[in-house]
């Protein structure tokens, strides 16, 4: 059978299981990454596992999310992360060095390696040919302890690219086109593998924009071949020795094919409040805009900011709006300074922010009330910007800069002559903000430093055979983890404090949930399709667990959230007949007999006196983990110290 890239990489990493779509396989993890908002929890869990050094080839801890330091909490967490990295043998990318995915791509990612990261956009490294998967922090902790990572062997979709992008059209428009076609759940259970002649016309950062935002399709990951273009990129980063060629066999056997002719792609935009709500910019051009934000792990590479700088050179940001720019890394900033492009951005009146996630996660720069924000980011969920009634539109850097100049949503092709620019062949490499792992003897002496906001992990107990309680909440389709556990400047600093962060659960959709869950001593969550899409934050499972939620009953789950529920001992059930969703109302008393989870599961709606058929897709090891009360108890019972 002719091999895809996915097959080739997984074949070398499978430790257990059969490589057949839908079957569970355990893969060896070479690299891991964490960021600060999920990292604190991941390392608290790693410390509970109790080994004295990471067992992966390479693990990197980044600080890029919680950088607004309005009090002691975030800086205390940064100090905790730095001391943990020193103690356990990790690289530490200091605050100010850049966004985890951009820096990882520049300085660490290698073709052919497996990577898991406690951030849903970890597939950014797929742009260089790494098999990179987003996961919950506990899964990353377990991988650092040397355990394999389990996943359902994916179907492989060949996204066949032909032709070349037109001027003013870029990689973001390609991924928006993919989202227009397959929407926010079209990638579930699949890898989007890019192939075809058009691939050679995309640079590594272009490819990384596409694999980054592939996450929004719900896919397991996205990946590009590792070819001569990859080699050139690695050479430019002084890492040519890490290049290996990974290309699909001719006539590789894809489960599905999506064909995209790059010549025909137009500037695209995702409308509020879903990255899958895509139209052509030309269809809604003229919309009055209050804010333009350029950056995020999707569009903050040197190429993206050079095009913005060249397009805005000599002009001023429209009076209608304000414009923020966050570069992806210090390397990008150093180049912008050296080439003089930084001057054009500053001259034009752009507000230059830190090289962090910033506005993407509501860490400052929220739009005004009912504001229209045009962003080069990857998510436009309701309230995510920090302003509940703001509306976010997702676009390419070209469309964003055109909009910043005119003050209304603008098709960049109307700007006229496309700026000329050349990318450097050698990047400015300066790793002085990356602290290297300490040798074991020195590491042993490091004292991990905790701030007062870091709370110990709650205890998790084995599951009983029968679960009972009330349906506490009933939700629609496509509920995101931002709905379940909001982010933003006020709540993010509580990521290392489960009791405190739990007070904010479902805040945006049901302001009484916390009190109700407390009063009822836990219960059940009921929802529609694609429950838990978006961020990998395990707090969206940890907080419900802490409040006594025993099971979540939905029409279907998003991948990472499903894994997080299992990891924290919440039973993830699906309706056998989706229409039975109508048979449970908030306040109904439910009894669910789960037994050992491998037999028939009976859900009794006591209030309505009916039985509802529910099922799950749990493997035997998932069931074992759940019955033990979660993955932490399971790993502790398994590891040989
Ligand atoms: C996001 O983009 O939503 C985040 C913030 O990067 C999350 C991680 C988190 O919630 O900390 C993600 O994408 O996984
Ligand atoms: Fe940061 Fe936004 Fe990327 Fe998440 S999507 S890692 S918040 S830049």
From TrEMBL:
Q: Where is the Aconitase/3-isopropylmalate dehydratase large subunit alpha/beta/alpha domain?
A: 7-282
**Sequence ranges assigned to domain Aconitase A/isopropylmalate dehydratase small subunit swivel in this UniProt record:** 515-577
Question: Which Pfam families does the protein's record reference?
Answer: Aconitase, Aconitase_C
Transmembrane ranges? none
Establish whether keyword Plastid is in the entry.
no
Cofactor section: [4Fe-4S] cluster
Database matches in InterPro entries: Acnase/IPM_dHydase_lsu_aba_1/3 (IPR015931), Acoase/IPM_deHydtase_lsu_aba (IPR001030), Aconitase/3IPM_dehydase_swvl (IPR015928), Aconitase/IPM_isomerase (IPR050926), Aconitase_4Fe-4S_BS (IPR018136), Aconitase_4Fe-4S_dom (IPR036008), Aconitase_put (IPR006250), AconitaseA/IPMdHydase_ssu_swvl (IPR000573)
Per its UniProt record, what NCBIfam families does this chain match?
A: acon_putative, PRK07229.1
Q: How does it assemble?
A: Monomer.
State what protein this is by name: Aconitate hydratase
Report the gene name: aco
